[in-house]
Amino acid sequence: MAVYVMSDVHGLKDRYDRMMENIHEEDTLYILGDVIDRGPDGIVILQDVMQRSNVKMLMGNHEYMMLQYYQA
Question: Contact 28/6 with Cβ under 8 angstroms?
């Protein structure tokens, strides 16, 4: 069992997919925010994160800004 940490994926699914190649079911990946914005695949990555029990995500400033926009 290993623990991995990454941040600032910014919608770049190829970056996320390369990391996921190293993550096994018994491992845990912590994503320290900024999954969305800039690249085209932020929502796709978020959906994948929500499907995986071994991937945990914290809200970054880009997610916070999006949330503020939709709550306005």
Answer: no
